[in-house]
From TrEMBL:
An example Gene Ontology molecular-function term: ATPase activator activity
Record protein name field: Activator of 90 kDa heat shock protein ATPase homolog 1-like Protein
Keyword GTP-binding: no
GO cellular component labels: cytosol
The UniProt record lists the keyword Chaperone: no
Keywords: Stress response
Pfam families reported for this sequence: Aha1_N (PF09229), AHSA1 (PF08327)
Family indicated by similarity: Belongs to the AHA1 family.
InterPro entries: Aha1, AHSA1-like_N, ASHA1/2-like_C, START-like_dom_sf
GO biological process, one term: protein folding
Organism annotation: Tribolium castaneum
Length: 340
């Protein structure tokens, strides 16, 4: 195997006159928030809702709260977005006596949810016989329009922020020729660990054990450390929104709250110690997880010792480390594990 910077082209830093982060090999991020707000406003301004029963149109965005970003790791583009939207509409029944107004609310537009799964709520300002009828027509007719326009937003987000995120090597391909890889982040991870009935019983002494895992990764020690402590990178491999304060005593929540804990010790590029638990474990019970990160000449070796694991959960916990951490990190960041 080649040593760092020797032989393996994936580790060679090629010269570029315009940047040191060659080909955006390291994690890079662009803020797509302000652009997204303007794009969403544009997509819903004066857009008609077609129906034979009424004349209805969206007028403007009432609320657009959230964030969006485009990220690149080793040539793989990853997009994050989360928006809470409220859109104003006006309408009148074909033979109605007056015009009505209302709002359409979409609280859950994110990469976690497919556009077809969006929760779309419709309200009308004046609730009377005509207003309520118009609201029902709007509820049935607007969903396809909303989904169509938001699909346009997602497509244009990826198109706009793919530009320049993957840079060409010297004398090679232009940015426009680089394929935009899909992150697949709309595929939800449902992490539901198996919990034995004995561990649910309150007042019994809990039988615990220790898990010892060693993994090898094709990355720098600092890169592996960052993957567990930088919120954007943790979000990338867990495919879900993360709560994290990567400081001594700082809390974290992963996988929709199924894993919670806090950091006890942080040594950049060397060591991480966490108090860590499945939410379904007996209340108040935490295990201690120690990551020892050791950079070798051609790879990084990580030894994980987890003490205080309920004995009945040891096997499934070890499997979940492999499935939800190691395999996901390899897919998200291209670390790749050696087979030994």
């Amino acid at each position: 195997m080649a040593k760092w910077g020797e032989g393996d082209p994936r580790w060679i830093v090629e010269e570029r006159p315009d940047a040191t982060n060659v080909n955006n090999w390291h994690w890079t991020e662009k803020n797509a928030g302000p652009w997204s707000v303007e794009r969403i406003k544009e997509l819903f301004k004066g857009v008609p809702v077609k129906t034979d029963l009424a004349d209805i149109q969206f007028t403007e965005i009432d609320k657009c709260e959230g964030e969006a970003s485009a990220n690149n790791r080793k040539g793989k583009l990853i997009f994050f977005y989360e928006w809470d939207l409220s859109i104003k509409w006006t309408g009148k029944l074909k033979n109605g006596s007056k015009s009505y107004s209302g709002k359409v609310k979409i609280p859950n537009l994110s990469e976690e949810n497919d556009v077809s799964e969006l929760d779309i709520k419709v309200s009308v300002k004046d609730s009377d016989e005509e207003g309520d009828k118009l609201k029902e027509i709007m509820l049935k007719s607007c969903k396809d329009v909303v989904r169509h326009q938001l699909t346009k937003y997602i497509s244009s987000l990826k198109e706009e922020f793919s530009k320049g995120m993957i840079l060409p090597k010297k004398d090679e391909v232009k940015p426009d020729a680089v394929k935009n890889l899909s992150s697949g982040f709309n595929k939800k991870i449902s992490m539901t660990p198996v919990v034995s009935e004995n561990n649910k019983q309150i007042g019994l002494k809990l039988d615990v054990t220790t898990i010892n895992i060693t993994q090898q990764f094709q990355c720098r020690a600092q890169e592996f450390y960052d993957a567990l402590t930088k919120i954007e990178m943790v979000t990338a491999f867990t495919r879900a929104h993360v709560k994290m304060d990567a400081s001594k005593g700082g809390k974290f929540e992963l996988f929709n709250g199924n894993i919670v804990g806090q950091f006890d010790e942080l040594v950049p590029g060397k060591k991480i110690v966490q108090q860590w638990r499945y939410k379904q474990w007996p209340e108040g019970h935490y295990s201690t997880v120690t990551f020892n990160i050791n950079e070798k000449s051609d790879h990084t070796e990580v030894n994980v010792v987890q003490s205080g694991v309920p004995t009945g959960e040891a096997e499934v916990t070890k499997e979940n480390w492999q499935r939800y951490y190691w395999d996901s990190m390899k897919r998200a960041f291209g670390f790749g594990a050696f087979i030994v």
